[in-house]
């Protein structure tokens, strides 16, 4: 079919375009007569007069899947601008016919109708130079049907998108099926980008425009026009532009460039241009000049769906506009040929029925700056990274944690993953250890047994007494373990491993004299002795330690007892307890050597010198939680229950990262070794001691709860338990005052001059209420430390506290 000259007037006036779209065709004098046909075998197609566009079959898949399409015919890629059967490729042997009765029909080799436009009988058809294919009426050549009214994923210059029309992205780069995204001018006149999914064509979440425009409203308009000056605008019927989607700003001309706007398979609406063949540049490509939304990775975010990438994968913007989807470490593409299907674990998944295996069969792998910002099933505000890790490792539901300002736990499948802007955040993905087989309880048990044997074996070399102790510990732990959860068994393993690595050392007294330069620098002093700074030579490194020389009273404890207790205490291992490095038991000398805590004691921080800055409210909240967790461990989680008996700010130390740790927790045990549970001699420090000390009642863990309550009030208020009222030089008890403020509804008084706390009165109130429960006169009314932790974390409601007053006035 020889091309006939087309009196080319490429673009029509906007008014024609807007009001009389059907008159476009009147410009054409190049027709496809009735009875014409195209087949997949013939290379023929119906060309536009300029030859720039062709209507015909394009082979898409190697095995012979054909698309009936309009293509840019003069560029090598033959880019598809429109297609008829994108969800339904036809095989070789298919045929397109403009029947003698005036119908355009696509049939497959069996003669089945695959596609046919909904139109009255036409007298002829035409492929126009705009890229529009039209069916025309006989009498006045008015347009009966045009490809422009049923766009696929692309708009061409002069094309309009009417209300209710949409572009639907391809499924993938090479698959022309309807995919996951649509660009639509809705019937409510709103213009949106939506997530969708063929064949379910309902609009899913919208991801552009990102926020409401003027006056809290989206821009509304009557149609979207790709106008003559190559801008894409949302306009009103009278031509007023209400919202420019792409404003070409008089850029490249249509004489020198092809233009198109395509909703790409990645969900990005792009404005492309391609230099026309004028002989010069040979290496030509479509370049994306403008695009929306600015960041597809973060734009596609909603309360359902996987986000810009598939489930379990995460999105990263490359070259400023292209989303790259990647699988987390340990994960692989579910379908290697289809990224959008997301990722799956490349390991046997967690099995919640095998509780024991979880904690050591899995590990967490760091993914810096990767974030999954939605759908946490649990979150913790005051967790350290370590706690966050443990929390996920010990939870068979947990697939990943994001650690940043919070610890956020996530289940599978993960959605909305992206490389975040916040470099302080990272994701930790849980993967099965590479050489761990799918665990069965049987296998796990064997492994644990082995660990214990190794421990016992190595210890045998050192001391046989130690062996007996360890065996006893193991047995008692084993007994405990039976009715405890996996957290306990994890703690058990931690402890075992720790004993192996920690090398609780027995020092000679002279060694410690050397380390402390004859007990030169005092770090602090407590009820049971004085603490000195020391430096231990440790291979090539020097290690700072705190060396505590116990008073003579303590040394009355028999050697055997001292060592046994030290070993037990040395066996405790919790991040909120100061670690015991070693001890010395020589003659009358009883010395304990601890890890050095560079930030000193909480007392120093809270009530230190005037002008010294106090820890901020959030740090204080964190410290409270840390101390509480340390106490839970002493009370409930170590092999033998330990009551501290002297919880106070002086005994809470802070390491270089401001992690709070309880110190001196073993001293109580050492002192108590020879004593009955009712004590005549009051221990502890005035203001922090529970009333039962004075009442000949038995001493339980609740005495620590009481002291913790006082400490908590001090943390909230940054004041000491005995605050001297400057005005009248009267000592008032902080607890007393706090309750007054609380019951008078004047909590703000407690945290005056503390902006952060003032702005967080809700948490201040919660903490004060918890503290008031802890200092109840009746030990039975005080919550156990475990419950205190839950209340501090906010996972348990804090009821209105009773008045602890009766007790306070008795002191
Ligand atoms: C169709 O055209 C291609 C290149 O455009 C050519 O390689 C092929 O031989 C042609 N086939 C037929 C049947 O004309
Ligand atoms: C042209 O024909 C169509 C039906 O094919 C009819 O609806 C229309 O009125 C006709 N127009 C003129 C100008 O005759
Ligand atoms: C394109 O993707 C759709 C959706 O996954 C699939 O059903 C179809 O078979 C694919 N087509 C081709 C040609 O691969
Ligand atoms: C096309 O759109 C631009 C930008 O919105 C506008 O300035 C221009 O007037 C429009 N062109 C025509 C011919 O309407
Ligand atoms: C177009 O219509 C809008 C609202 O109907 C109106 O505000 C605007 O002034 C009109 N513009 C013109 C050029 O008539
Ligand atoms: C498992 O792998 C780790 C490190 O890759 C290695 O240290 C350990 O010995 C391995 N364990 C077994 C049982 O192969």
Automatic annotation (TrEMBL):
Catalytically driven reaction(s): L-seryl-[protein] + ATP = O-phospho-L-seryl-[protein] + ADP + H(+); L-threonyl-[protein] + ATP = O-phospho-L-threonyl-[protein] + ADP + H(+)
Entry keyword Membrane: yes
Topology with respect to the bilayer: Single-pass type I membrane protein
Annotated residues for binding of ATP: 548
SUPFAM superfamilies according to UniProt: alpha-D-mannose-specific plant lectins (SSF51110), Protein kinase-like (PK-like) (SSF56112)
TM region(s), chain numbering: 450-475
GO cellular component, one term: membrane
Stored InterPro entries: Bulb-type_lectin_dom, Bulb-type_lectin_dom_sf, G-type_lectin_kinases/EP1-like, Kinase-like_dom_sf, Prot_kinase_dom, Protein_kinase_ATP_BS, Ser/Thr_kinase_AS, SRK-like_kinase
Entry keyword set: ATP-binding, Disulfide bond, EGF-like domain, Glycoprotein, Kinase, Lectin, Membrane, Nucleotide-binding, Receptor, Serine/threonine-protein kinase, Signal, Transferase, Transmembrane, Transmembrane helix
Subcellular location: Membrane
Top-rank EC class of the record's enzyme: transferase
The enzyme's E.C. designation: 2.7.11.1
Signal peptide: 1-26
Family: Belongs to the protein kinase superfamily. Ser/Thr protein kinase family.
Classification via PANTHER family: G-TYPE LECTIN S-RECEPTOR-LIKE SERINE/THREONINE-PROTEIN KINASE SD2-5, RECEPTOR-LIKE SERINE_THREONINE-PROTEIN KINASE
Protein name listed in UniProt: Receptor-like serine/threonine-protein kinase
């Amino acid at each position: 079919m020889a091309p006939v000259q087309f009196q080319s007037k490429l673009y029509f006036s906007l008014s024609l375009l807007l009001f009389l779209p059907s008159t476009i065709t009147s410009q054409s004098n190049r027709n496809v007569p009735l009875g014409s046909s195209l087949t997949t075998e013939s290379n023929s197609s119906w060309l536009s007069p300029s030859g720039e566009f062709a209507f015909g079959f394009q082979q898409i898949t190697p095995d012979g899947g054909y698309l009936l399409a309009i293509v840019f015919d003069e560029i090598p890629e033959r880019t598809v601008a429109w297609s008829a059967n994108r969800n339904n490729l036809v095989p070789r042997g298919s045929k397109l016919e403009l029947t003698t009765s005036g119908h355009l029909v696509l049939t497959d080799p069996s003669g089945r109708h695959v596609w046919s436009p909904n139109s009255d009988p036409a007298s002829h058809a035409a492929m126009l130079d705009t890229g529009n294919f039209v069916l025309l009426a006989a009498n006045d050549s008015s347009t009966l049907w045009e490809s422009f009214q049923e766009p696929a994923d692309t708009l061409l210059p002069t094309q309009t998108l009417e209300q209710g029309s949409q572009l639907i992205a391809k499924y993938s780069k090479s698959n022309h099926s309807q995919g996951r995204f649509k660009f639509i001018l809705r019937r409510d006149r709103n213009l949106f980008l939506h997530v969708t999914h063929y064949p379910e064509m309902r609009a899913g979440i919208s991801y552009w425009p990102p926020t409401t425009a003027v006056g809290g409203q989206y821009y509304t308009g009557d149609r979207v026009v790709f106008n003559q000056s190559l801008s894409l605008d949302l306009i009103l019927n009278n031509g007023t532009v209400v919202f420019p989607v792409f404003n070409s700003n008089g850029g490249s001309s249509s004489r020198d460039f092809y233009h198109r706007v395509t909703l790409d398979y990645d969900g990005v609406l792009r404005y492309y241009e391609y230099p026309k063949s004028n002989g010069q540049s040979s290496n030509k490509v479509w370049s994306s000049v403008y695009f929306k939304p600015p960041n597809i990775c973060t734009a596609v975010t909603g309360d359902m769906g996987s986000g810009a990438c598939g489930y379990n994968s995460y999105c990263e913007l490359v070259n400023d506009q292209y989303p790259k989807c990647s699988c987390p470490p340990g994960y692989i593409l579910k379908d290697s040929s289809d990224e959008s299907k997301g990722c799956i674990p490349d390991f046997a998944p967690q099995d919640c029925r095998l509780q024991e295996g979880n904690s050591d069969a899995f590990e967490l792998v760091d993914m810096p700056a990767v974030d999954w910002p939605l759908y946490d099933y649990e979150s913790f505000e005051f967790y350290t990274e370590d706690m966050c890790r443990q929390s996920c490792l010990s939870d068979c539901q947990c697939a990943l944690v994001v650690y940043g300002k919070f610890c956020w736990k996530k289940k599978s499948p993960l959605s909305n993953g992206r490389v975040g802007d916040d470099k302080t955040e990272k994701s930790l993905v849980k993967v099965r250890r590479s050489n761990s087989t799918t665990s069965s309880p049987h296998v796990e048990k064997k492994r644990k047994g082995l660990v214990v044997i190794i421990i016992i074996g190595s210890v045998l070399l050192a001391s046989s007494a130690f062996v007996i102790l360890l065996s006893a510990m193991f047995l008692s732990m084993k007994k405990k373990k039976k009715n405890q959860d996996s957290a306990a068994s994890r703690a058990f393993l931690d402890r075992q491993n720790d004993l192996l690595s920690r090398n609780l050392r027995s020092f000679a007294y002279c060694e410690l004299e050397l380390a402390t330069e004859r007990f030169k620098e005092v770090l602090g002093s407590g009820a049971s002795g004085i603490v000195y700074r020391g430096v231990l030579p440790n291979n090539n490194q020097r290690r700072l330690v705190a060396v505590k020389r116990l008073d003579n009273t303590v040394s009355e404890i028999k050697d055997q007892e001292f060592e046994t207790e030290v070993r037990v205490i040395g066996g405790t291992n919790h991040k909120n307890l100061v670690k015991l490095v070693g001890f010395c038991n020589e003659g009358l000398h009883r010395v304990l050597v601890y890890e050095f805590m560079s930030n000193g004691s909480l007392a120093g921080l809270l009530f230190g010198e005037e002008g010294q800055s106090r820890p901020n409210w959030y740090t204080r909240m964190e410290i409270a939680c840390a101390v509480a967790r340390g106490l839970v461990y002493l009370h409930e989680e170590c092999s033998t229950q330990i009551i501290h008996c002297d919880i106070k700010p002086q005994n809470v130390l802070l390491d270089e990262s401001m992690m709070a740790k309880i110190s001196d927790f073993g001293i109580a045990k050492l002192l108590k070794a020879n004593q009955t549970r009712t004590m005549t001699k009051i221990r502890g420090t005035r203001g922090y001691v529970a009333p039962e000390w004075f009442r000949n009642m038995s001493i339980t863990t609740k005495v620590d709860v009481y002291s913790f309550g006082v400490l908590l009030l001090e943390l909230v208020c940054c004041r000491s338990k005995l605050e001297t009222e400057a005005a009248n030089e009267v000592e008032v008890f902080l607890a007393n005052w706090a309750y007054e403020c609380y019951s008078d509804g004047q909590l703000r008084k407690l945290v005056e001059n503390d902006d952060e706390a003032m702005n967080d009165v809700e948490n201040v109130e919660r903490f004060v209420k918890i503290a008031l429960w802890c200092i109840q006169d009746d030990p039975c009314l005080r919550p156990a430390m475990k419950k205190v932790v839950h209340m501090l974390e906010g996972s348990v409601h804090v009821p209105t506290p009773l008045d602890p007053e009766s007790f306070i006035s008795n002191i």
